[in-house]
Give the backbone structure.
Amino acid sequence: MKSPAAKKLFVMMILEFFIWGAWLPLIWGYMGKDGLNFTDTQVALVGTAFAIASVIGIFFSNQFADRSFAAEKFMAFSHLVGGVSILAMYWVKDFPTFFALMLVHSLFYVPTISVANSLAFTHLQNAQKEFGLVRMGGTIGWILAAWPLYFILQGKSGVEAVTASRNIFLVSGISSLALAFFSLSLPHTPPKPAAEGESKLAWLSAFKFLGHPYLLVLFIVTFIDSTIHNGYFLMAGGFLGSKAVGIKPEWIMPVMSIGQIAEILTMAVLGAVLARLGWKTTMTLGILGHAARFAVFAFMPANQTMIIAVQVLHGICYAFFFATLYIFIDAAFPKDVRASAQGLFNLLVLGLGDLAAKWIFIPLQGSLTAADGTVNYRELFLWPTGFALVATALLLVAFWPPKELSCNVEVKH
């Protein structure tokens, strides 16, 4: 990252994911019986805010970023409003106001993930080579936010824990306001008029591109992989803390964070891997990472060392599939709809995949739980393993992008 623009984009990614990492890991305990005492239904509703925002963002926010507003100004305004919203949650204790503020924050924050990607691709000289390095800043930002807050709050209980946990909203809100001001220094990225013959609705043009078989296949595979990816976060914590594995509660998050360290390393080599292996092989390895990890969970639950070691596959799962996906979208869609195209696939990653994981894996785990609380983890984890193998087969058989999208060709902007 030699250019000043790439360095600014790297800082942008750090702040972008610092905002999210500050509150997501710890908000659930804060909303529970030791904190705000919300019901399970209320907690679940707060958890759907991102999914709602990912749907609405396609039709409004990403449309504005593509057609109406300069991307850096869109980022600034969105993080200003989103930052004020989550900052206000520090003082709120009733559910209706708390949920409303989280929904407002999500509506303004979620689209910025797609716009940040699109902005980065616009100003990188070689997106396939450099995006992994820039996006690595996001993982670093998440760790910088989540890890210190997690360890600071360890050992606290009762009123002390609740009071301390509220600080996640201060940290997230202040970092969002910081990114709002920093965004004004990002490279100017003006909106793009509709291409000749294309609809003025960028999201509609993005949807039309799914008429290309290779993009439709990728859309379906992304939905399956997003469901598996979100399912991991739903099920892994309980599994690691189960009697079979026996990891102490205070070490569950650090163990899962091994995957984030691996993600940083994988992002660093993503450009070289793409150039050598190509789109299909790289994304296939990303999906097979899920299959391997869940297979180890299913068949080797008593091998704690192996369970911990296999967490490194998270880096391959995320970087080789999702980061590659974002690079491919930038290459496959025209400039005037790229924010909407990123939002279209983020609808799956952040929205429908998350909801599908909850609808599938939570009831499934309930049905596989005995009266004494013991879970049949082998059968449970064979389901996402099977899903991953189906997605892999679909990608191998039916994903054939045009030769001009070869990742051996430098993407010009």
In short: Confidence is low (pLDDT under 50) at residues 408-413.
